[in-house]
Protein backbone atom coordinates (compact mmCIF):
# COMPACT_ATOMS: atom_id res chain seq x y z
CA UNK A 1 0.00 0.00 0.00
CA UNK A 2 2.74 2.46 0.92
CA UNK A 3 4.44 1.94 -2.47
CA UNK A 4 1.14 2.69 -4.23
CA UNK A 5 0.81 5.92 -2.27
CA UNK A 6 4.43 6.74 -3.17
CA UNK A 7 3.66 6.13 -6.87
CA UNK A 8 0.60 8.37 -6.65
CA UNK A 9 2.56 11.16 -4.97
CA UNK A 10 5.31 10.87 -7.57
CA UNK A 11 2.77 10.92 -10.43
CA UNK A 12 1.35 14.15 -9.08
CA UNK A 13 4.84 15.63 -8.69
CA UNK A 14 5.67 14.90 -12.33
CA UNK A 15 3.15 17.59 -13.27
CA UNK A 16 5.72 19.98 -11.81
CA UNK A 17 8.89 18.01 -12.56
CA UNK A 18 8.35 17.61 -16.30
CA UNK A 19 8.07 21.38 -17.01
CA UNK A 20 10.93 21.99 -14.56
CA UNK A 21 13.30 19.57 -16.31
CA UNK A 22 12.20 20.83 -19.73
CA UNK A 23 13.10 24.37 -18.69
CA UNK A 24 16.45 23.33 -17.23
CA UNK A 25 17.22 21.12 -20.21
CA UNK A 26 16.81 24.00 -22.65
CA UNK A 27 19.98 25.63 -21.28
CA UNK A 28 22.03 22.53 -22.04
CA UNK A 29 20.27 21.58 -25.28
CA UNK A 30 19.01 18.35 -23.70
CA UNK A 31 15.37 19.16 -22.93
CA UNK A 32 13.76 16.52 -25.15
CA UNK A 33 16.35 13.83 -24.49
CA UNK A 34 16.25 14.50 -20.74
CA UNK A 35 12.49 14.06 -20.47
CA UNK A 36 12.48 10.94 -22.68
CA UNK A 37 15.19 9.27 -20.61
CA UNK A 38 13.56 10.24 -17.33
CA UNK A 39 10.46 8.45 -18.60
CA UNK A 40 12.54 5.38 -19.47
CA UNK A 41 12.85 5.85 -23.24
CA UNK A 42 16.45 5.60 -24.46
CA UNK A 43 18.18 5.78 -27.82
CA UNK A 44 18.12 2.75 -30.16
CA UNK A 45 21.93 2.59 -29.88
CA UNK A 46 21.71 2.32 -26.10
CA UNK A 47 19.00 -0.34 -26.16
CA UNK A 48 20.79 -2.43 -28.78
CA UNK A 49 24.16 -2.24 -27.01
CA UNK A 50 22.90 -3.31 -23.59
CA UNK A 51 21.26 -6.38 -25.12
CA UNK A 52 24.58 -8.08 -25.77
CA UNK A 53 26.84 -6.69 -23.05
CA UNK A 54 27.33 -7.18 -19.33
CA UNK A 55 26.39 -4.00 -17.50
CA UNK A 56 27.34 -2.20 -14.29
CA UNK A 57 25.04 0.73 -13.51
CA UNK A 58 26.42 3.58 -11.38
CA UNK A 59 24.12 6.37 -10.21
CA UNK A 60 25.39 9.77 -9.03
CA UNK A 61 22.77 12.46 -8.56
CA UNK A 62 24.75 15.61 -9.46
CA UNK A 63 28.18 17.21 -9.89
CA UNK A 64 29.61 16.52 -6.43
CA UNK A 65 28.66 12.87 -6.44
CA UNK A 66 29.88 12.40 -10.02
CA UNK A 67 33.27 13.92 -9.23
CA UNK A 68 33.55 11.83 -6.07
CA UNK A 69 32.83 8.69 -8.09
CA UNK A 70 35.57 9.25 -10.68
CA UNK A 71 38.29 7.23 -8.86
CA UNK A 72 35.84 4.34 -8.48
CA UNK A 73 34.68 4.58 -12.10
CA UNK A 74 38.27 4.44 -13.33
CA UNK A 75 38.98 1.47 -11.07
CA UNK A 76 35.88 -0.33 -12.36
CA UNK A 77 36.98 0.28 -15.94
CA UNK A 78 40.35 -1.35 -15.21
CA UNK A 79 38.83 -4.25 -13.26
CA UNK A 80 35.99 -4.92 -15.71
CA UNK A 81 37.21 -3.84 -19.17
CA UNK A 82 34.56 -5.90 -21.00
CA UNK A 83 31.60 -4.55 -19.05
CA UNK A 84 29.48 -1.59 -20.08
CA UNK A 85 29.67 1.14 -17.46
CA UNK A 86 26.45 3.15 -17.41
CA UNK A 87 26.46 6.34 -15.36
CA UNK A 88 23.15 8.01 -14.57
CA UNK A 89 22.48 11.47 -13.14
CA UNK A 90 19.49 13.51 -12.07
CA UNK A 91 20.83 17.00 -12.83
CA UNK A 92 21.92 18.47 -16.15
CA UNK A 93 25.19 19.71 -14.64
CA UNK A 94 26.01 16.25 -13.33
CA UNK A 95 25.17 14.81 -16.74
CA UNK A 96 27.50 17.31 -18.43
CA UNK A 97 30.38 16.25 -16.18
CA UNK A 98 29.56 12.58 -16.79
CA UNK A 99 29.67 13.09 -20.55
CA UNK A 100 33.32 14.08 -20.34
CA UNK A 101 34.45 10.85 -18.63
CA UNK A 102 36.22 8.49 -21.00
CA UNK A 103 35.90 5.57 -18.58
CA UNK A 104 32.10 5.51 -18.96
CA UNK A 105 30.32 3.93 -21.94
CA UNK A 106 26.92 5.62 -21.60
CA UNK A 107 25.66 8.63 -19.64
CA UNK A 108 21.91 8.71 -19.12
CA UNK A 109 19.38 10.63 -17.09
CA UNK A 110 18.01 8.64 -14.17
CA UNK A 111 14.40 7.56 -14.75
CA UNK A 112 11.54 8.91 -12.68
CA UNK A 113 11.10 6.50 -9.77
CA UNK A 114 7.68 5.31 -10.92
CA UNK A 115 7.25 1.55 -10.46
CA UNK A 116 6.31 0.79 -14.07
CA UNK A 117 9.11 3.01 -15.45
CA UNK A 118 11.95 1.50 -13.41
CA UNK A 119 10.63 -2.03 -13.93
CA UNK A 120 10.74 -1.56 -17.71
CA UNK A 121 14.18 0.04 -17.67
CA UNK A 122 15.76 -2.63 -15.47
CA UNK A 123 14.07 -5.25 -17.65
CA UNK A 124 16.07 -4.33 -20.74
CA UNK A 125 19.27 -2.97 -19.13
CA UNK A 126 19.68 -6.05 -16.86
CA UNK A 127 22.72 -4.75 -14.90
CA UNK A 128 24.84 -7.21 -12.95
CA UNK A 129 25.11 -4.66 -10.17
CA UNK A 130 23.74 -1.22 -9.30
CA UNK A 131 26.03 1.18 -7.46
CA UNK A 132 24.43 4.16 -5.74
CA UNK A 133 26.85 6.97 -4.85
CA UNK A 134 26.32 8.58 -1.43
CA UNK A 135 22.70 8.33 -0.26
CA UNK A 136 20.50 8.01 -3.34
CA UNK A 137 17.65 5.87 -2.03
CA UNK A 138 14.94 5.56 -4.71
CA UNK A 139 12.31 3.19 -3.26
CA UNK A 140 10.80 1.75 -6.46
CA UNK A 141 14.15 1.46 -8.23
CA UNK A 142 15.73 -0.41 -5.32
CA UNK A 143 12.65 -2.60 -4.84
CA UNK A 144 12.55 -3.53 -8.54
CA UNK A 145 16.27 -4.37 -8.46
CA UNK A 146 15.80 -6.72 -5.51
CA UNK A 147 12.88 -8.46 -7.23
CA UNK A 148 15.15 -8.99 -10.25
CA UNK A 149 17.97 -10.34 -8.03
CA UNK A 150 20.25 -7.41 -8.94
CA UNK A 151 22.64 -6.51 -6.10
CA UNK A 152 22.39 -2.87 -5.00
CA UNK A 153 25.46 -1.35 -3.36
CA UNK A 154 25.49 2.00 -1.61
CA UNK A 155 29.02 3.46 -1.85
CA UNK A 156 30.60 6.52 -0.28
CA UNK A 157 27.49 6.53 1.87
CA UNK A 158 26.74 9.35 4.21
CA UNK A 159 23.75 10.51 6.24
CA UNK A 160 23.94 14.28 6.72
CA UNK A 161 22.66 16.18 9.74
CA UNK A 162 19.86 17.54 7.56
CA UNK A 163 18.74 14.27 5.99
CA UNK A 164 19.00 12.10 9.13
CA UNK A 165 15.87 13.45 10.90
CA UNK A 166 13.96 13.30 7.58
CA UNK A 167 14.71 9.59 7.19
CA UNK A 168 13.75 9.00 10.82
CA UNK A 169 10.31 10.46 10.13
CA UNK A 170 9.47 7.85 7.49
CA UNK A 171 10.44 5.03 9.89
CA UNK A 172 9.35 1.63 8.60
CA UNK A 173 9.33 2.77 4.97
CA UNK A 174 13.01 3.69 5.23
CA UNK A 175 13.72 0.36 6.89
CA UNK A 176 11.99 -1.52 4.04
CA UNK A 177 14.07 0.35 1.44
CA UNK A 178 17.33 -0.30 3.30
CA UNK A 179 16.53 -3.99 3.66
CA UNK A 180 16.66 -4.24 -0.15
CA UNK A 181 20.23 -2.90 -0.32
CA UNK A 182 22.94 -5.53 -0.53
CA UNK A 183 25.75 -3.65 1.22
CA UNK A 184 26.38 -0.21 2.68
CA UNK A 185 29.91 1.16 2.15
CA UNK A 186 29.85 4.17 4.44
CA UNK A 187 32.26 7.11 4.65
CA UNK A 188 32.64 7.09 8.43
CA UNK A 189 31.71 5.24 11.60
CA UNK A 190 29.17 7.98 12.36
CA UNK A 191 27.48 7.42 9.00
CA UNK A 192 27.47 3.70 9.74
CA UNK A 193 25.78 4.24 13.11
CA UNK A 194 23.17 6.50 11.55
CA UNK A 195 22.20 4.13 8.76
CA UNK A 196 22.00 1.29 11.28
CA UNK A 197 19.59 3.37 13.36
CA UNK A 198 17.50 3.96 10.23
CA UNK A 199 17.08 0.21 9.87
CA UNK A 200 19.96 -1.07 7.74
CA UNK A 201 20.92 -4.64 8.71
CA UNK A 202 24.10 -4.35 10.83
CA UNK A 203 25.84 -7.21 9.02
CA UNK A 204 25.74 -5.31 5.74
CA UNK A 205 27.30 -2.08 7.02
CA UNK A 206 30.99 -1.41 6.33
CA UNK A 207 33.11 1.68 6.83
CA UNK A 208 35.21 1.94 3.67
CA UNK A 209 36.18 5.63 3.84
CA UNK A 210 35.56 8.65 1.66
CA UNK A 211 36.18 8.37 -2.09
CA UNK A 212 36.88 12.12 -2.18
CA UNK A 213 40.31 11.42 -0.67
CA UNK A 214 41.16 9.38 -3.78
CA UNK A 215 40.65 12.24 -6.24
CA UNK A 216 43.39 12.78 -8.81
CA UNK A 217 44.42 16.09 -10.35
CA UNK A 218 43.96 16.25 -14.15
CA UNK A 219 47.09 16.17 -16.29
CA UNK A 220 48.93 19.45 -16.79
CA UNK A 221 47.86 19.65 -20.42
CA UNK A 222 44.21 19.45 -19.41
CA UNK A 223 44.65 22.16 -16.80
CA UNK A 224 46.47 24.36 -19.35
CA UNK A 225 47.33 26.97 -16.71
CA UNK A 226 49.39 28.93 -19.23
CA UNK A 227 46.23 29.72 -21.18
CA UNK A 228 44.56 30.96 -18.00
CA UNK A 229 47.59 33.12 -17.22
CA UNK A 230 46.95 34.95 -20.50
CA UNK A 231 43.38 35.83 -19.51
CA UNK A 232 44.55 38.86 -17.53
CA UNK A 233 46.93 41.63 -18.48
CA UNK A 234 50.41 41.14 -16.99
CA UNK A 235 50.73 43.34 -13.93
CA UNK A 236 53.16 43.50 -11.04
CA UNK A 237 52.36 41.04 -8.24
CA UNK A 238 49.35 39.59 -10.03
CA UNK A 239 47.52 37.09 -7.83
CA UNK A 240 44.20 35.27 -8.07
CA UNK A 241 41.50 34.77 -5.47
CA UNK A 242 39.10 31.97 -6.53
CA UNK A 243 35.74 31.45 -4.85
CA UNK A 244 34.12 28.17 -5.91
CA UNK A 245 30.71 26.56 -5.39
CA UNK A 246 29.23 29.86 -4.22
CA UNK A 247 25.54 30.39 -3.49
CA UNK A 248 23.23 33.39 -3.40
CA UNK A 249 24.43 35.84 -0.75
CA UNK A 250 28.03 34.62 -0.87
CA UNK A 251 29.11 36.40 -4.05
CA UNK A 252 28.17 39.74 -2.50
CA UNK A 253 30.14 38.89 0.66
CA UNK A 254 33.17 37.72 -1.34
CA UNK A 255 33.05 40.88 -3.42
CA UNK A 256 33.26 43.04 -0.29
CA UNK A 257 36.29 41.07 0.89
CA UNK A 258 37.91 41.32 -2.54
CA UNK A 259 37.40 45.08 -2.77
CA UNK A 260 39.06 45.56 0.61
CA UNK A 261 41.93 43.24 -0.35
CA UNK A 262 42.57 45.19 -3.57
CA UNK A 263 43.36 48.30 -1.53
CA UNK A 264 46.44 46.45 -0.26
CA UNK A 265 46.95 44.11 -3.21
CA UNK A 266 46.12 46.06 -6.40
CA UNK A 267 47.30 43.18 -8.59
CA UNK A 268 44.64 40.81 -7.19
CA UNK A 269 41.96 39.33 -9.48
CA UNK A 270 38.75 37.61 -8.42
CA UNK A 271 37.26 34.49 -10.04
CA UNK A 272 33.74 33.44 -9.04
CA UNK A 273 32.55 29.90 -9.78
CA UNK A 274 28.87 29.72 -8.74
CA UNK A 275 27.66 26.29 -7.72
CA UNK A 276 24.79 26.50 -10.21
CA UNK A 277 25.91 27.85 -13.63
CA UNK A 278 22.40 29.07 -14.44
CA UNK A 279 22.91 31.78 -11.79
CA UNK A 280 25.95 33.27 -13.52
CA UNK A 281 24.12 35.98 -15.45
CA UNK A 282 22.30 36.96 -12.27
CA UNK A 283 25.67 37.18 -10.50
CA UNK A 284 26.99 39.43 -13.27
CA UNK A 285 23.94 41.67 -12.89
CA UNK A 286 24.59 41.93 -9.15
CA UNK A 287 28.22 42.86 -9.81
CA UNK A 288 27.11 45.54 -12.29
CA UNK A 289 24.76 47.05 -9.72
CA UNK A 290 27.70 47.14 -7.31
CA UNK A 291 29.72 49.10 -9.88
CA UNK A 292 32.01 46.18 -10.74
CA UNK A 293 32.84 45.01 -14.26
CA UNK A 294 32.55 41.28 -14.87
CA UNK A 295 33.02 38.85 -17.74
CA UNK A 296 31.55 35.41 -18.29
CA UNK A 297 33.97 32.58 -18.89
CA UNK A 298 32.18 31.57 -22.11
CA UNK A 299 32.73 35.01 -23.66
CA UNK A 300 36.51 35.09 -23.20
CA UNK A 301 37.27 33.73 -26.67
CA UNK A 302 35.43 36.60 -28.31
CA UNK A 303 37.58 39.20 -26.55
CA UNK A 304 40.61 40.69 -28.27
CA UNK A 305 42.40 42.02 -25.19
CA UNK A 306 43.28 40.45 -21.83
CA UNK A 307 41.26 41.53 -18.82
CA UNK A 308 42.50 44.14 -16.40
CA UNK A 309 42.91 42.76 -12.84
CA UNK A 310 39.84 44.55 -11.45
CA UNK A 311 37.49 42.74 -13.86
CA UNK A 312 35.79 39.81 -12.12
CA UNK A 313 35.70 36.55 -14.07
CA UNK A 314 32.45 34.61 -13.57
CA UNK A 315 32.78 30.96 -14.60
CA UNK A 316 29.61 29.75 -16.32
CA UNK A 317 31.07 26.45 -17.53
CA UNK A 318 30.86 23.06 -15.81
CA UNK A 319 33.79 20.93 -14.68
CA UNK A 320 36.54 23.58 -14.53
CA UNK A 321 36.65 24.32 -10.83
CA UNK A 322 39.87 22.32 -10.28
CA UNK A 323 41.52 24.22 -13.11
CA UNK A 324 40.70 27.57 -11.53
CA UNK A 325 41.75 26.39 -8.08
CA UNK A 326 45.10 25.26 -9.49
CA UNK A 327 45.55 28.68 -11.11
CA UNK A 328 44.72 30.66 -7.98
CA UNK A 329 46.77 31.71 -4.97
CA UNK A 330 44.03 31.44 -2.37
CA UNK A 331 40.69 29.60 -2.51
CA UNK A 332 37.33 29.99 -0.79
CA UNK A 333 34.77 27.16 -1.00
CA UNK A 334 31.16 28.26 -0.83
CA UNK A 335 27.97 26.90 0.60
CA UNK A 336 29.62 27.68 3.91
CA UNK A 337 29.02 31.40 4.58
CA UNK A 338 25.30 30.77 4.13
CA UNK A 339 23.46 27.82 5.73
CA UNK A 340 23.82 25.32 2.88
CA UNK A 341 26.05 22.78 4.62
CA UNK A 342 29.27 23.31 2.69
CA UNK A 343 30.94 21.72 -0.32
CA UNK A 344 34.06 19.68 -0.97
CA UNK A 345 37.07 21.59 0.36
CA UNK A 346 39.40 18.72 -0.58
CA UNK A 347 39.32 19.86 -4.22
CA UNK A 348 41.36 22.90 -3.23
CA UNK A 349 43.71 20.71 -1.18
CA UNK A 350 44.24 18.52 -4.23
CA UNK A 351 45.68 21.55 -6.03
CA UNK A 352 47.91 22.35 -3.02
CA UNK A 353 46.16 25.66 -2.39
CA UNK A 354 45.20 27.12 1.00
CA UNK A 355 41.45 26.83 1.40
CA UNK A 356 39.04 29.02 3.35
CA UNK A 357 35.53 27.97 4.31
CA UNK A 358 32.78 29.41 6.48
CA UNK A 359 30.96 28.18 9.59
CA UNK A 360 28.22 26.19 7.80
CA UNK A 361 30.04 22.94 7.02
CA UNK A 362 27.74 20.41 8.70
CA UNK A 363 27.71 18.12 5.65
CA UNK A 364 31.50 17.71 5.86
CA UNK A 365 32.14 17.63 9.61
CA UNK A 366 34.72 14.84 9.59
CA UNK A 367 36.61 16.29 6.64
CA UNK A 368 36.64 19.72 8.29
CA UNK A 369 38.02 18.20 11.50
CA UNK A 370 40.81 16.43 9.60
CA UNK A 371 41.68 19.50 7.51
CA UNK A 372 41.85 21.73 10.56
CA UNK A 373 43.93 19.22 12.52
CA UNK A 374 46.35 18.97 9.59
CA UNK A 375 46.48 22.78 9.26
CA UNK A 376 45.44 22.33 5.63
CA UNK A 377 42.71 24.96 5.62
CA UNK A 378 41.19 27.81 7.60
CA UNK A 379 37.60 28.00 8.82
CA UNK A 380 36.31 31.55 9.25
CA UNK A 381 33.22 32.64 11.14
CA UNK A 382 32.37 35.61 8.92
CA UNK A 383 33.58 37.91 6.14
CA UNK A 384 35.76 39.94 8.51
CA UNK A 385 37.76 36.85 9.45
CA UNK A 386 37.94 35.87 5.79
CA UNK A 387 39.41 39.25 4.93
CA UNK A 388 41.97 39.14 7.74
CA UNK A 389 43.20 35.62 6.94
CA UNK A 390 43.22 36.20 3.17
CA UNK A 391 45.27 39.37 3.63
CA UNK A 392 47.69 37.49 5.88
CA UNK A 393 48.30 34.73 3.31
CA UNK A 394 48.59 37.13 0.39
CA UNK A 395 51.34 38.88 2.37
CA UNK A 396 52.97 35.57 3.25
CA UNK A 397 53.22 33.23 0.22
CA UNK A 398 55.39 30.81 2.19
CA UNK A 399 52.67 30.25 4.76
CA UNK A 400 50.07 29.89 1.99
CA UNK A 401 52.22 27.23 0.33
CA UNK A 402 52.69 25.36 3.63
CA UNK A 403 48.93 25.23 4.30
CA UNK A 404 48.27 24.04 0.75
CA UNK A 405 50.84 21.27 1.03
CA UNK A 406 49.44 20.22 4.41
CA UNK A 407 46.05 19.75 2.79
CA UNK A 408 47.54 17.73 -0.07
CA UNK A 409 49.46 15.52 2.37
CA UNK A 410 46.19 14.85 4.23
CA UNK A 411 44.71 13.53 0.99
CA UNK A 412 47.69 11.26 0.46
CA UNK A 413 47.46 9.87 3.99
CA UNK A 414 43.76 9.01 3.70
CA UNK A 415 43.65 7.36 0.30
CA UNK A 416 42.33 3.82 -0.02
CA UNK A 417 38.52 4.07 -0.04
CA UNK A 418 38.40 3.17 -3.75
CA UNK A 419 40.27 -0.11 -3.25
CA UNK A 420 38.12 -1.09 -0.26
CA UNK A 421 34.91 -0.23 -2.11
CA UNK A 422 36.00 -2.05 -5.26
CA UNK A 423 36.67 -5.15 -3.18
CA UNK A 424 33.07 -5.14 -1.93
CA UNK A 425 31.73 -4.64 -5.46
CA UNK A 426 33.85 -7.49 -6.82
CA UNK A 427 32.39 -9.86 -4.25
CA UNK A 428 28.92 -9.25 -5.72
CA UNK A 429 29.67 -9.46 -9.46
Q: What is the CATH architecture annotation of the largest domain?
A: 3-Layer(aba) Sandwich
> What are the segments in which pLDDT stays under 50 over at least 5 consecutive residues?
none
Protein structure class:
alpha/beta
Gross morphology is globular
Helix-strand layout with pairing:
Layout: H1 2-28, H2 31-38, H3 44-51, E1 55-59, H4 63-79, E2 84-89, H5 92-98, E3 106-109, H6 115-125, E4 129-133, H7 139-147, E5 152-157, H8 163-169, H9 171-179, E6 183-186, H10 189-197, E7 205-207, H11 220-223, H12 225-229, E8 239-246, H13 250-264, E9 268-274, H14 280-289, E10 294-296, E11 312-314, H15 321-327, E12 330-333, H16 346-350, E13 355-357, H17 365-373, E14 377-379, H18 383-395, H19 397-413, H20 417-426
Parallel strand pairs: 1-2, 1-4, 2-3, 4-5, 5-6, 6-7, 8-9, 8-12, 9-11, 10-11, 12-13, 13-14
Amino acid sequence: MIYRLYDLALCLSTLILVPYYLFRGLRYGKARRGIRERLGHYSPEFRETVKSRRVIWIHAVSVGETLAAIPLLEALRQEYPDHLLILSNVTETGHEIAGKLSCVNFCIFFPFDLSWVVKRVLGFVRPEAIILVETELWPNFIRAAKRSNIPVLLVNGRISDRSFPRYLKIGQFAEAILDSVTVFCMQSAKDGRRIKRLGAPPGRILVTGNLKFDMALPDADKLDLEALANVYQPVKNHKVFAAGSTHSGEEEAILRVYQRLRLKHPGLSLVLVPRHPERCRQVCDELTRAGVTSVLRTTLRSRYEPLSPEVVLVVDTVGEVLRFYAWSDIVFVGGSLVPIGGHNILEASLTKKPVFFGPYMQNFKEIVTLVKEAHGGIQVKDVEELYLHADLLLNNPGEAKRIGENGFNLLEENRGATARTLNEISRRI
